[in-house]
Amino acid sequence: MKKITYITIVALALSTTGWAQRTDVNYDESKVPAYTLPALLVTDGGQQVTTVAQWEQERRPEILEHFTSQMYGRTPTAHIPVRYEVLTEDPQALGGRATSRQVRLIFSNGQKTQEALLLLYLPNHVAGPAPMFVGYNFKGNHSTTLDTTILYSKNFALVKEPGHPDWERGCQTNRWAYEDIIGRGYGVATMCYHDIFPDKPGLKDHSVVSLFPGYGEGGRAPDEWQAIGAWAWGSSRILDYLATDPRVDMERVAIMGHSRQGKAALWAGAQDTRFKVVISNNSGAGGAALSRRKYGETIAIVSSIKPAWFCRALDQYHGREEAMPFDQHQLIALMAPRAVYVASAERDQWADPKGEYLAAYHAGPVYELYGLKGLPSLTMPAIHQPIMNDVGYHIRAGKHDVTAYDWQAFLDFADKHFEVSTVSP
After folding, report:
1. 259, 283, 291, 344: which one is catalytic?
2. Any catalytic annotation for residue 280?
3. Does residue 237 carry a pLDDT above 50?
């Protein structure tokens, strides 16, 4: 009975992507193929990397280019102007413990505009600039709180029909531990990911991608960026706004992403070193999990989701992950020397918890170059036994989700690396 229930849950989760009827997903550890990971500290030309300078000047750019050209796509370099409109500000939010602010980001290429709504909470009891968490929500800013003043995003009406349960205020408050975050002395900035790239087929014209030069012209290049690239770009634009606020400590900003946004958080962190702590929660294939394990979600599945999350070049590795010149331990290593945390859930086999742990473990040699500490062993820790080194990890009981336990671990990890002491209001 338990097995039937789990399969049903997986099928429902996949129904919108067209993979609900798949019967070839591997959840058997004995069927994981033998594999050899691509070298982390050997250049494409075969030179051993032994110093930080070699890593930063030679090997890191090579790895970044592999992920750019063959997985996430190439982020355009064109500048899209943005202006900010403060829509609301409440200095007595969360019972007086925080100041809330809603800001409209208006992106324009001179002919077309796209809007995104940012919801910001800053702790009132912290003297000086506050450290911050940045992260997307899935169901709109209104879903993260019961506050009736929180506005609905323009793009939300495109992805959810009237009367859908996701219109209900507070429908995902369980994923946003605002009281705990503020109580620990952190601010938090969130935005609905649909504002940047609506995650529904046929809505690309309503994404920020449509503002860039060349959009809609000619054939699609193999390395053309898609949704994950756009979401990562949008995370950096949230940072741009935070940099205008003197109440934000830009040297202490963490990005947290869950599921597909865990993938995007890693890609954002790889490209934008302003994120000083990078946290990936239940991110699976194309995120923290090793592709070569072919366990749960695979490259063939994840690169066939519509609208596309990954660039077209990734399609060449369907069923042949062993041919990839990169794997996700290298992505995690791109965060060094900044702190990175990977979180898994025991019942989230689709995301391959073991593959997530092993990728984080195998990123360790780069951290060692900096004199920092990775994960201590090839053996995963027990449930609810987090590791808080420069590379951190936990696996918790439960399913694919963001829980209060996760947030306590993320806050503990950030405290350690931002040297924040627990603050009482």
Report:
1. 259
2. no
3. yes
